[in-house]
């Protein structure tokens, strides 16, 4: 259960209004890699976690923190929209710069949100719960969480270079710092899973009843590109990260099965079947003769 604290984790106050940047800031609120995604992702991973103790606490702690980041960004967006012009005429009466900012604003901020933040990305597309993953496998989830934090840090860093507002930049610095911690934290959690003997790879790397598959497919890099540049990569030779084998390199991958020949479909489904093509050929031959 959550208990709302009125104070923010960090100040979210711009030095001035900027409706156009408020629109851009929506991406790290309601975009695919935004705070709404990671907050819900970590919380659901925590609620679904079957291991009581440190792993469940980790997920729920950081999910709760990310919910605080949602509030911070929503507050910043709302403040960026304060005193923003509501019409082009109103903007033009001020100065050309304000008019340009008006042109880059999101009308939905005012029509739908009444001058407040929305659960959408920077294009106004609603946030989608399909963005979150909670698989029940901690190794698989933690690896995705590293990716989520990397993408979030990337977007925050890009937004940092899109504004000159000192107040906005200060909040973005804080978010970038916390995302740096979270990315390192998930990588440490992956190491902890290995140390605790809970996970090696997310799901078994191969089934133990077939050593042939393990040898031929599990550790061979298949190069489908011209040249052999990929052979220089760490993934083409040397010991594998799981410590179980050596990478091998195959520059001429071969097919392991013949061309598929599909049986005719059920005629009640009105598909185009192989026999129909032969029927067309026969009709053409009969007309020619």
Automatic annotation (TrEMBL):
Please state what the protein is called: Mn-containing catalase
Question: Residues that bind Ca(2+), according to the entry?
Answer: 57, 61, 225, 227
Residues the record lists as binding Mn(2+) 1 = 35, 69, 149, 182
- Which residues bind Mn(2+) 2 per the record? 66
Instruction: Determine the domain of life of the protein's source.
Output: Bacteria
Q: Where is this region: Disordered?
A: 230-289
- Could you give the cofactor binding note from the entry? Binds 1 Ca(2+) ion per subunit.
Among its keywords, does the record have Cytoplasm?
A: no
Task: Kindly give the SUPFAM superfamilies that the UniProt entry links to this protein.
Answer: Ferritin-like
Which species is the source of this protein? Answer: Micromonospora cremea
One Pfam family here = Mn_catalase
MF GO annotations: metal ion binding
The entry sums up its family as follows: Belongs to the manganese catalase family.
- Cofactor(s) it depends on: Ca(2+); Mn(2+)
Q: Where is the composition biased (Basic and acidic residues)?
A: 243-257
Q: Which UniProt keywords apply?
A: Calcium, Manganese, Metal-binding
């Amino acid at each position: 259960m959550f208990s709302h604290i009125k104070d923010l984790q960090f100040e979210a106050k711009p030095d001035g209004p900027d409706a156009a940047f408020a629109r851009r800031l929506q991406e790290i609120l309601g975009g695919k890699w935004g705070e709404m995604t990671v907050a819900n992702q970590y919380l659901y991973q925590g609620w679904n976690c079957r291991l009581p103790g440190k792993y469940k606490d980790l997920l729920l702690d950081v999910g709760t923190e990310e919910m605080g980041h949602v509030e911070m960004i929503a507050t910043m967006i709302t403040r960026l929209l304060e005193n923003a012009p509501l019409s082009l005429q109103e903007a033009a009466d001020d100065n050309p710069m304000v008019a340009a900012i008006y042109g880059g604003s999101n009308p939905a901020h005012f029509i739908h949100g009444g001058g407040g933040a929305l659960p959408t990305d920077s294009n106004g597309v609603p946030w989608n719960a399909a963005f979150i993953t909670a698989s029940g496998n901690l190794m698989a989830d933690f690896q995705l969480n590293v990716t989520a934090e990397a993408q979030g840090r990337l977007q925050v860093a890009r937004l940092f270079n899109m504004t000159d507002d000192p107040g906005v930049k200060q909040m973005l610095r804080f978010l970038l710092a916390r995302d740096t911690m979270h990315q390192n934290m998930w990588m440490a959690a992956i190491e902890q899973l290995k140390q605790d003997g809970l996970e090696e790879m997310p799901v078994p790397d191969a089934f133990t009843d077939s050593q042939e598959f393990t040898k031929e497919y599990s550790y061979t890099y298949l190069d489908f590109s011209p040249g052999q540049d990929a052979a220089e990569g760490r993934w083409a030779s040397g010991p594998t990260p799981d410590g179980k084998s050596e990478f091998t390199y195959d520059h001429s991958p071969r097919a392991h099965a013949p061309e598929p020949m599909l049986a005719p479909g059920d005629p009640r489904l009105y598909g185009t079947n192989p026999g129909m093509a032969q029927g067309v050929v026969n009709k053409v031959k009969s007309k020619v003769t």
